[in-house]
Amino acid sequence: MESFLTWDREATKCFPTLVVCVGTIRGVKVERNNQQIEALRHAVTADVRRMFKLELLKDDPTVRAYRDLFWSLGIDPTKTRPSGEALLRRVLHGEEIPNISTVVDAYNLASVKTVIPLSGFDLDQISPPLMVRFSREGEEFHGIGMNKPITIADKMLVVADTEDIVCIYPHRDADATKITEKTKTVAIIGYGATGITIDQLTEAVKTASSFINQTSGGRTESTNFFPSNRSN
Q: Hey, is 83 helix, strand or coil?
């Protein structure tokens, strides 16, 4: 896994303190819903409603770190919220997170609990190695929920495999690599920000892996982190 993800030099130069953490889980059984995910949903929802207050959320250090990252990426975090904050706000408003599948719901619940943005990918649909880099002029991206590909702005920070962009860092995942009921091997990616420690990222990815094991089986194979200042 050491060569699974690298950083482009330009991305490293602009974001020398960022870290990405990747976990892999093999042998999962993805279902639309089951008792295990509903029990986990209830437990995590109750926990975060005790831990967080909606009116104080904007001052939480983790929320602030990702808002600052979004501003640095040219994204207004009051309009496009970091996924961890967006999901947590939904829960604190008295709503439930969307029911997509046991695996997707499991890592979304981990994101709610840790406030760390997480992505989940079907590893068999990815062509590694991945690279964190800036988008190129005219490059297209087909995100989950989009009817067709869009041409994304130049110089957006993205995660790409050898063929396509798999994520706009750290908030929009590609449709082609999404988790479906056919998925057997999952890659979870935790996205860093300045002020977020490696321990926080690792804990978020391990929490997601544990939740997936609880609700969808499988075995956690590895958890690795990739700092942007690591020599490529």
A: helix
